[in-house]
Amino acid sequence: MAISNSLPVLVVANLFAAMCVGFGINAILRPEHGVSFFELAPPTVDGPEKILFNSLMAVYGARDVFMGVAIWAATLTGERKALGWILLGVSAVAFADGAICAVNGAGEWNHWGYAPVVMVVGLLTLGVLDGSKAKTA
Fold it and tell me: Which domain holds residue 54?
């Protein structure tokens, strides 16, 4: 069996999906806690800043939920190549989130710690380690 179709790779992909959905729901329902992964302080006073903050956290949460659902959809339909590319996209988002944190001074490793793992799983799902296939004339 090719590594790209192995059960452990698919299980890990599904765990990443659950993680994305969980982070997304957390950001939507508990924006003050959701922003803690960026090591930023939420607004403490009600007003326009708090409304903007809650709205942006809902957008962030929806993005994460979408990424998780996209992973599950590709897994459930058996679209391994799509799954691999989605995982690479999720990895890129995690690297970008980490870069944004680094610019703000803290929290980058909350994202950079798992981004390479998602990337490796994406590459495995794309068949990088499946070996070369013999070509027939």
Answer: 3-125
